[in-house]
Specification:
Blueprint lengths: L13 H4 L7 H6 L9 E5 L6 E7 L3 E2 L4 E2 L5 H4 L11 H4 L8 H6 L9 H4 L4 H4 L9 E2 L18
Parallel strand pairs: 2-5
Antiparallel strand pairs: 1-2, 3-4
């Protein structure tokens, strides 16, 4: 039996039935909720491995849309930008934000009701105050040795 298709052309609730490593590129990309948190600079404690988010954003983050302004060619500008894929999720999921769909599914948790795949609207991530919309500072304005002064608490 075929899965019912939703308005995005994807099988309804595909993320509940399909392991991350088996997702096709369209499914994988659809998991992104558009919060922008993955584009925030992070600090990792060398001893504990704990990762802290800062409000200091990558130079390519569009603070209003919470999307990369140069997504398709971002490595030309930010060579160390990590592209999350089904093949490297095990290596990188730990530093993703706690609300991130990739991390949630990797941890075996459900998506939140505000996630666009659940709500049907990209706006709900902003309405729920999960995104960093309008709340970031440019990495050009804050010296890296001061980033620890800009650590933010994630909403839960």
């Amino acid at each position: 039996m075929n899965d019912p298709i939703d308005r995005t052309g994807l099988a309804r609730n595909f993320w509940d039935r399909k392991p991350l490593k088996k997702m096709n590129p369209k499914e994988w990309e659809a998991l992104c909720d558009g919060c922008g948190k993955c584009c925030l600079n992070k600090l990792e404690d060398e001893d504990s491995g704990e990762v802290a988010l800062t409000c200091v954003a990558c130079r390519l983050l569009d603070d209003e849309s919470c999307r990369c302004a140069q997504y398709d060619i971002r490595h030309q500008f930010v060579p160390d930008c990590i592209i999350m894929t089904p093949d490297n999720i095990d290596e990188h999921a730990y530093w993703m934000p706690a609300t991130c769909a990739y991390r949630l599914l990797w941890e075996g948790k459900p998506l939140y009701p505000w996630h666009p795949l659940i709500s049907g609207s990209a706006q709900t991530v902003h309405d729920a105050n999960i995104s960093v919309q309008g709340r970031t500072l440019s990495e050009f304005d804050i010296p890296e040795d001061e980033w620890e002064n800009y650590i933010i608490e994630e909403p839960t």
